[in-house]
Structures are given as structure tokens and as C-alpha cells.
Amino acid sequence: MNYLTVDLYKDFECVADACLNTCCGGWRIEIDEKTYQKMVDNQERLGVPAKEWISQEDDTYLVNLDENGRCPMLNENNLCRIVLKLGPEYLCTTCMGYPRSLRIFGNVIEGQLSMSCPEVIARLMKKPQVQFDLTNDERPAYPFSHTALYLFASSVRTCIVDLLQYPADVSLVTKLFAFFDILNKAVISFKNGQTDFELFQEEIGQYFLEETLLALDNCLMQGINESSRYQFLLHVQSSLEERSGRFQELVCQVREYFAKNNADAFAEHIDKFKEAIAEYESFYINYWVYHIFLDAMIIPDYENVLERFIYTAAEFCLTQTIALVSFVNNGVLDKEEYIYIISNMSRMMEHNHLFREELTKRLDNFHAASAAGVLMMIIA
Ligand code: SF4
């Protein structure tokens, strides 16, 4: 068996009570039946009857979050009562594994870390460049009927990562534009039954020439217009969900910002914000490389990969909009607040059909919002 992971995977450690945005709240927490039974069996040691904090919906057991949207097992120091009173082996599989998850593709297991965990984001901010670890052992492969697609799609993914990490002096938007075009070509190639990567490579070789990227950069930079960006962000920010706590305050501030500021004020703010985020240049590459590793492998429905990246682009636009408003209101972009915003946006996107539906409606209603259009709206 082969194991492919991002290099943070092996050494990742939860920071527990020092976490900037605990995963024990702010979203739906499901637990498995076996864990529910353990909570019933140990309710005296835990000091809370299981029925008081876990409810059942059909076959699903759900944690009843408190009025602040937190798991009631979280104590005032942000530590888990189950771990403290019973031990970590009593946690449900979701809590035990998070933010790690595994995907199995026959003889390859890919290990991922979710970006909704702020510690993952903090580590990505410190890293000059994301690397990958590949190891193997003697374990047998799982049955898998899409090996040819996996090999093709993972080669495409590797080449997109190379492109993003390619040291050309061009904007992030240009690299994302090129990456999206490569992905689009890969999907067309797949739909035509052509999954020979060597042939495909000839088709996309132009993107690995610095002069091509520079010419594209020149062309795209002329096409970016702050007034259209303002209209786009004004339109999509209203899809942001109501949430409890600090994130809700940030969402309200975004609404107020667009009510008070016109496109000219926005253009001025963007210039200053870009100076403030210059230090995150390598983080943005890491962010997208990470997303490509997590999201570019949709098998067997490979064509859906394009839709997934439009959401990722929209998520990034919204993240940067909230960060911009925080920067305008506070005069600085606080790093911890920024991490908190990124992890919350990631949480809003994960497993949240209602938000995705709302976002889709808004993207569909906005005539310029083709995939390329959304990428042009990114602030970086
Ligand atoms: S979000 Fe990450 S760092 Fe925070 S409590 Fe959960 S696993 Fe730990």
C-alpha cells in the first residue's frame, strides 16, 4: 500500500485549549451509535445523562449544542470533559479523527487535514512551501475500478501544484487562471475518453513557459476592474450565513460595510489591504495547493471538479472580503482574527448544502460569474 499525505499530516497536533476556533462547536456534530452507547453506560462518571446532550434523528445521533453553539462537553477552559473524565479512547470517530481524514484509491491512501482547523491554517502560514510525503508498506491494495482515472487525475494535480509553486513573477490570479484552464482541459480530455497523461502534457506545455504566464498576467491585470469586483462581492456576501458568536459580528460588519461604502471607497481600501496582505503571499500558494490536494480528486465524477473549484474561489473571495472589512475597521489585519475567519469560512463550506445552494443561486444570478469571472474577483 502507498500512503500520500501533505507534510503537515504526520506531525499535526491539536492545540486544545489554545485553539483559536475550537472544532467542538459552530457546526453539526454527529456521533456514532457505539459512542452513544458508551455515553449511556458511563453517564454517572461523566456526570451528565446522555439524553440531556445527545438527541436522535432517525439513525443519527446529534450533539445538542448550547446557546453559544458549543458542544456541552466542552468546559470553560475549552477542554473536553469526555477526555478529562473518561479518556480520549471514549471519543466518537469524528472527534478522534478530526481534522484528519483518509481517502482510499485502491493501492493509494491519501491522508488529508481539514482547513477548517485553525491550527492547520496557522501551520500553513508558517511554511515556506507545502511538500508531500509518499511512503509504502506491504499491506494489500483495496479493490478499485478507476485506477486509470486516478493515475491521470493525480498527474494533472501534480502538474497544477508545480504550476502554482513555479517561481514566476506573476499574480496569484494568473496562476489560478492557468490552473483552472488546465483542469478544464483535463475534464474535456477525460470526457473524450483520453486519459493518457503524456499526450495531455503536450497540450498544456505552454503554461510552463514564463513568457506565457507573463503575457497572461499582463492581459488579466488590465481586465480587473474594482467597480465590477465591488458589485460581485456586494452580491455574494449576502449569501453568508447567520452564525452565533464572534463570526456573526464579522458577518454583520460586512453587511454594514457594503451599506456605507461605495465602489470608490472600496477601491481605496483594496489598495491598502493589498499592502497589508503582502506578507501572506506564500501562504496563499499553500492555501491553493492544499485545496488542490483535497479537492482535485473526485472519482469517478471527475467533471464535478470544476464546480468544486468555483466554490473554492467563491469561498476565498468571501474570506478576503471579511478580512478586508476587519482590516478597514481595525486599521490592521490581526493574524489570529484572519486565521479565525479562514477556518470559519472553511467550516461554512464543509458539509453545508444550504449555504452551497444559496451561493450557487447568487453565482448564477450574477452574469459575470463564470469560473474565470470568479477567479478574477479574488483579492490577493
Ligand atoms: S480545531 Fe483543530 S486545534 Fe482546534 S480543537 Fe479542533 S483539532 Fe484541535
Can you give keywords for this protein?
3-stranded antiparallel sheet, alpha+beta, 4-stranded mixed sheet, binds iron/sulfur cluster, 58% helix, 7 strands, globular, 380 residues, 19 helices
Helix segment tally: 19
Quaternary assembly: single chain
Mean of all residue-level pLDDT scores: 91
Which molecules are bound in this entry? iron/sulfur cluster
What is the helix fraction of residues, given as a range? 55-70%
Structure class:
alpha+beta
Beta-strand percentage range: 5-15%
Give the overall shape. Answer: globular
Strand order of the largest sheet: 5-6-1-7
Number of domains: 2
Poorly predicted ranges (pLDDT <50, ≥5 residues)? none
How large is the radius of gyration?
22 Å
Distance between the termini: 39 Å
Main sheet record:
4 strands, mixed
Provide a descriptive summary of the structure in words.
This protein is of the alpha+beta class and 380 residues long. The strands form 2 sheets. A 4-stranded mixed sheet has the order 5-6-1-7. A 3-stranded antiparallel sheet has the order 2-4-3. Helix content is 58%, strand content 8%. The structure holds iron/sulfur cluster (SF4).
Secondary-structure blueprint of this entry?
Elements (H helix, E strand, L loop, with lengths): L1 E5 L1 H4 L18 E2 L1 H9 L1 H4 L3 H4 E4 L2 E4 L17 H5 L7 H5 L2 E6 L2 E6 L4 H9 L5 E5 L10 H19 L6 H20 L5 H8 L5 H14 L2 H12 L7 H16 L2 H14 L4 H15 L8 H27 L4 H15 L3 H13 L5 H6 L4
Parallel strand pairs: 1-6
Antiparallel strand pairs: 1-7, 2-4, 3-4, 5-6
The structure holds iron/sulfur cluster (SF4).
